[in-house]
UniProtKB/TrEMBL annotation:
Subcellular localization, as worded in the UniProt entry: Cell membrane
Lineage: Bacteria, Bacillati, Bacillota, Bacilli, Bacillales
Bias type Low complexity, positions: 162-178
Protein name (database record): DUF421 domain-containing protein
Highest taxon, organism lineage: Bacteria
Positions of the UniProt region annotated as Disordered: 147-182
Protein source organism: Paenibacillus albicereus
Family statement: Belongs to the UPF0702 family.
Topology of the protein relative to the lipid bilayer: Multi-pass membrane protein
Domain YetF C-terminal: 80-244
Length: 258
């Protein structure tokens, strides 16, 4: 075996794979969905085959890796515009615990056992299931844990006046995406049957109305359009993201005009 050729191929393939992973974006490193994992395994397998078989032309490995990168980047770009495709490839989060109550049916669907759940709760410094307001199994397999309000207060966390997790701004800050948004947040009265104390409820994503969320709020599209008019929004497609938090405050992020 020509060790000089092997060394050269190894170094070259290393930089090719490194460049491809960088071009695929930070999303691939920070969040590995099933689709991301498949692409990464395929690229790694091709790289190993090219390094081991010194008789094989380098292009036999580089070309397939570049094609895989193009597929990944193309699908990621299309998924940004199409939520259905995004859910198809990435899946959607699953609520494992709600209000301190486990959802055995959802755990069974996700083949997620109690040992895995308790381990991840401990990793989030939560000892009891009853102390959890929401535990959400993300598409990456990570468990996002939102403790109950009293537990957050007891551990030095924020109180009810804090902004909800994932919502960096209230309705008053939505003006950064559009100058015509009201200065004061719109406050709604939420039904008792759908009282999410810490979790924001998405109503519009990428200009698409989430009718199931409206149904759980006991509202309809006509009501939503009336609320959006208070932000000088006449069309759902103008809205990039809209949600309502546990206080009933509506958050609206308007798409930037091209």
């Amino acid at each position: 075996m020509d060790f000089g050729s092997l060394l050269l191929r190894t170094i070259l393939i290393y930089f090719v794979v490194f460049l491809i992973m960088r071009l695929m974006g930070k999303r691939e490193i920070g969040k590995m969905s099933v689709f991301d994992l498949v692409i990464s395994f395929m690229i790694a397998e091709i790289a190993v085959l090219v390094i081991e078989d010194t008789e094989r032309p380098m292009l036999d490995g580089i070309v397939p890796m570049v094609i895989l990168m193009a597929i990944q980047v193309g699908i990621a770009f299309i998924s940004m515009k199409n939520r259905r495709l995004r859910l198809l490839f990435d899946g959607k989060p699953s609520v494992i615990i709600a209000g301190g109550k486990l959802d055995p049916e959802e755990m069974r669907k996700q083949r997620y056992n109690l040992d895995d759940l308790l381990q991840q709760l401990r990793e989030n410094q939560v000892a009891r299931v009853a102390d959890v307001e929401f535990a959400i199994l993300e598409t990456s397999g990570k468990l996002s844990v939102i403790p109950k309000e009293q537990q957050r207060n007891g551990s030095g966390g924020g109180g009810k006046g804090d902004a909800p997790a994932g919502e960096g701004s209230s309705g008053s800050e939505a003006g950064s995406a559009g100058d015509d948004v009201r200065d004061k947040p719109v406050q709604l009265k939420l039904p008792v049957s759908y009282r999410f104390e810490t979790l924001p409820i998405p109503l519009i994503m990428d200009g698409k109305v989430l009718d199931k969320s409206l149904e759980k709020l006991e509202k309809n599209r006509f009501w939503l359009k009336q609320q959006l008019r208070k932000f000088n929004v006449s069309d759902y497609k103008q809205v990039f993201f809209c949600s309502v938090d546990h206080k009933g405050e509506l958050f609206v992020d308007i798409k930037k005009k091209p």
